[in-house]
């Protein structure tokens, strides 16, 4: 049984929507799983045998464990995800723990995104609002991607994209406190490795 597999850094995710393109799937998985910790790799293949499945490789076991508990059964592209620990160690982990010698430069780049990101959050005085204003979004951002990120927070109502602008969006909550909770958790969150999302309260 899958329960007997010991916890490790790699999660095996299945029951994924097979209609989603591979690159979009990987970006969406990165967006929802990277809140739990640094991700070394995401593997998704579109071969017949591997369709609807993916592997998410975390830097440490505690991140993988938290992700497994939080995201088990999460409705992802309208299908509940099924998540277990992977049976075998992934290449990314083997590289990290010495089977391969990781290049110094790569290791440094991995560290950087996780350090000191959230400071920018409260630098300017802002009046709380139940609507959040998102900026610096990547071009491939979709309403679904953002709703999967924000609907884990209580009071989430809707995402509104701005026609003709891919880099900004609005997210509405039922109360200012609920909006503030989501903002504190996700401000500075990296939707992709190169795009750090900025979240402010929308001006009243």
Automatic annotation (TrEMBL):
GO terms for biological process: mRNA splicing, via spliceosome. CDD domains: RRM1_SNF. Residues 9-88, 130-204 form the RRM domain. SMART domains: RRM. It comes from the Eukaryota. It comes from Trichoplax adhaerens. Its main location: nucleus. Keywords: mRNA processing, mRNA splicing, Nucleus, Repeat, Ribonucleoprotein, RNA-binding, Spliceosome. Signal peptide: none annotated. Residues 97-122 are annotated as: Disordered. This is RRM domain-containing protein. Residues 97-117 have a biased composition (Basic and acidic residues). SUPFAM superfamilies: RNA-binding domain, RBD (SSF54928). It is found in: Nucleus. Pfam families: RRM_1. GO terms for molecular function: U1 snRNA binding. Belongs to the RRM U1 A/B'' family. GO terms for cellular component: spliceosomal complex; U1 snRNP.
């Amino acid at each position: 049984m899958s329960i007997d597999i010991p916890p490790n850094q790699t999660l095996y995710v299945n029951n994924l929507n097979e209609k989603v393109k591979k690159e979009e799937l990987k970006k969406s998985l990165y967006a929802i799983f990277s809140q739990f910790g640094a991700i070394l790799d995401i593997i998704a293949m579109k071969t017949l045998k591997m369709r609807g499945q993916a592997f998410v490789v975390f830097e440490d076991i505690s991140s993988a464990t938290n992700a497994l508990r939080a995201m088990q059964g999460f409705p992802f592209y309208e299908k509940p995800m099924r998540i277990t620990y992977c049976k075998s160690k992934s290449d990314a982990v083997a590289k990290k723990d010495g089977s391969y010698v990781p290049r110094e430069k790569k290791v440094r780049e991995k560290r950087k995104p996780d350090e000191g990101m959230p400071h920018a959050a409260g630098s300017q005085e802002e009046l709380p609002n139940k609507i959040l204003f998102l900026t610096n979004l990547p071009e491939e951002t979709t309403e679904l991607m953002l709703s999967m990120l924000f609907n884990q927070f209580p009071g989430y109502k809707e995402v509104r994209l701005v026609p003709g602008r891919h880099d900004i969006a609005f997210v509405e909550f039922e109360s200012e406190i609920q909006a503030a909770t989501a903002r504190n958790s996700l401000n500075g969150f990296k939707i992709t490795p190169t795009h750090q999302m900025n979240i402010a309260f929308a001006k009243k």
